[in-house]
Hints:
By secondary structure, the protein is of the alpha/beta class. It is built from eight helices and seven strands; from the N terminus they run H-E-H-H-E-E-H-H-E-H-E-H-E-H-E.
Amino acid sequence: xxxxxxxxxxxxxxxxxxxxxxxxxxxxxxxxxxxxxxxxxxxxxxxxxxxxxxxxxxxxxxxxxxxxxxxxxxxxxxxxxxxxxxxxxxxxxxxxxxxxxxxxxxxxxxxxxxxxxxxxxxxxxxxxxxxxxxxxxxxxxxxxxxxxxxxxxxxxxxxxxxxxxxxxxxxxxxxxxxxxxxxxxxxxxxxxxxxxxxxxxxxxxxxxxxxxxxxxxxxxxxxxxxxxxxxxxxxxxxxxxxxxxxx
Length: 247
């Protein structure tokens, strides 16, 4: 075989490889990124209450029915914990949830993972970390970042800057503000955290804010919030769902 023929063959093979279709993404009703605050303002007991709120929610038949009742009957979910700008820790990677068994498996893996906490609070860092997670495994009808936390952004760039860039990509950011009566490193309780979340964190199509009056109320609040996100029944952009409400 001459040099020209070999060159043509090599070019053909390269083009053939380039033409190979990429791995198809699995269609789901929603790609849901769960982003959970584990900064130092969240103590060990509170971190456990947060974690168990999500575990209990995915073990709840109401969540499982909401998923099954979607147009495709399945969602993609991933869960990570965040704190300071450069601290985002994957806990459970992208998982398809489509029935009781897959929901319970997700909950069991989440329940078994160790708890850690670290440093300051960077909501902007959490959003920036979450955005490129979309489109890796699933193709969702909707793309949602679910952020829960008990404090304002105090590390990294301003939260609204990260939020606005995510919204421009068609991503919705929902929030769950955890109100707390105790002091935070000597500072008085932040009694306007919900208003701050509404102004600086949530945004995008159908975005909404939920409020947990304290960490003890977190479990019920996250259950109702997930039901809205999965069933696409938000309370309305910029509005807060009443604690304990099914909306």
